[in-house]
Design a protein that fits this description.
Layout (H helix, E strand, L loop, with lengths): L1 H12 L34 E9 L2 E9 L9 E7 L9 H11 L3 E5 L17 H15 L5 E11 L1 H12 L3 E7 L4 H7 L9 H16 L6 E2 L8 H5 L4 H13 L9 E2 L3 H4 L15 E6 L5 H10 L6 E6 L11 H18 L1
Helix pairs in contact: 3-4
């Protein structure tokens, strides 16, 4: 019984992501995309995808740019930066929404976070809020220099953990003229307090572990990782997990939308920064139009609700609930994705 409770507790401590088994093969899609309806080839007259790399603070960033059908670099298009979930990569849900936005006439960019995915940076899987926020700004730097992009019509869409970091980025970066989140996950609050405040009694213990991990790194020792073990895969194990977020998240990241660059782990020392971060802090600095979307059945909704209520600096804000959807279902279930896209088209269409 104690072992079972410990397993559940560790699951609750970490955000939705995956650890891909050693037998995981690369996706058959030529661009590595794993979502339904993904582009398989660039065809004239249709939405096209172009993998690119660029440097951000000395680190090589890997990104995908999606162009609208009949893209003409001599014309001007609105653009949207898409930030992926914690542990996710650009080929999963971020790519899906980037492609769908391109179908609606936007030039979009989805990049792997620095130290993660196909992007550079050592040690691997560092997950610090300041880096993730800078990654979002870096995507804006790159896409606004791209042929055909109208710089004064730049939007931002953040998904899950990328949603929390997008809110933080938009607080100060006013290049983003409209900001949207989907299934926002407040990474720092969950890392500190546990999901639904389930880890309040172990905060100091975990901070001590993170401090010791940092000291070990500084001394040239082995880099320690959190969530660096096999995830539950058996039906009986999954049934013991009390939250939809994690139960469905393991299936999404580890089974239906698995990608070899998507990983569950992050450096233990990252907790020193993560546990001091709160995406809902300084929300009053957002004066841009704001749309926050979440599933009506999402057990993560309390994070969206808190951030939305703190957004007192904008006159144009909307909370949109997708009926019947859980957090993970907004990533891929066609009816829920379509509802989210309809709202995004309405929102960005009005403000971009």
């Amino acid at each position: 019984m104690k072992r079972e409770l410990k397993t559940i507790f560790l699951i609750v401590m970490y955000t939705t992501a995956t650890i891909i088994s050693s037998g995981q093969t690369r996706p058959a899609n030529p661009f590595g995309l794993v979502y339904r309806g993904a582009i398989t080839e660039n065809v004239p007259g249709r939405v096209n995808i172009h993998p690119v790399t660029y440097k951000l603070n000395g680190i090589v960033i890997a990104a995908n740019i999606y162009f609208p059908a009949n893209y003409d670099p001599s014309k001007k298009y609105p653009a949207v930066v898409v930030a992926h979930p914690n542990g996710g990569v650009k080929e999963q849900v971020a790519g899906l929404y980037a492609q769908r936005m391109a179908e609606s006439g936007y030039i979009t960019i989805a990049a792997d976070a620095s130290y993660q995915g196909a992007s550079g940076g050592e040690p691997r899987n560092v997950d610090k809020p300041a880096f993730r926020i800078e990654d979002i700004r870096g995507m804006a730097d790159f896409i606004t220099q791209y042929a055909g992009v109208k710089n004064d019509r730049l939007g931002l869409l953040g998904i899950c953990g990328g949603g929390g970091y997008s809110l933080a980025a938009a607080q100060t970066d006013k290049r983003f003229k409209a900001v949207a989140t989907l299934s926002m996950f407040n990474s720092g609050v969950v890392r500190r307090n546990g999901f639904m405040n389930s880890g309040l009694t172990t905060i100091q213990e975990r901070l001590k572990q993170a401090s010791e991990a940092r000291a070990q790194e500084a001394a040239g020792g082995k880099v320690l990782y959190a969530a660096d073990g096999p995830m539950p895969t058996e039906e009986e194990e999954l049934a013991k997990i009390p939250y939809d977020l994690y139960r469905e998240g393991y299936n999404y990241y580890g089974n239906t939308h698995a990608h070899p660059n998507s990983t569950f782990r992050y450096t233990m020392s990252s907790l020193l920064d993560l546990m001091a971060f709160d995406a809902s802090t300084n929300m009053d600095l957002i004066n841009q139009p704001l749309l926050m979307m979440a599933g009506s059945k999402a057990d993560t909704f309390y994070m969206t609700d808190a951030a939305f209520n703190h957004a007192t600096g904008t006159k144009e804000k909307e909370l949109f609930l997708i009926p019947g959807a859980t957090h993970i279902q907004t990533y891929y279930v066609p009816e829920y994705v379509n509802q989210a896209m309809n709202k995004l088209n309405e929102f960005f269409g009005k403000y971009l």
